[in-house]
Amino acid sequence: MRIEIDLSGLRCPLPVLRVKKALNEIAAGGELRVFASDPEAKNDIPSFLKQAGHTLHDISAADGGHYFLIQKK
Fold it and tell me: What domain of life does the UniProt record list for this protein's source (predicted)?
């Protein structure tokens, strides 16, 4: 299962909180693809994922932000 969320326009701490909420809604092993426009998300989301034990498979720059591909532990 893969869920995609667009966090355009949200500023810290909302991107991390929305990622956390979305991860709570999917089963272990599920994937979450996130777009975030907040420049701080490039640091904040990976830090949260490391702390929570989830896997960050990829971060890619996009026009106006970054995409994150996450797998729930």
Answer: Bacteria
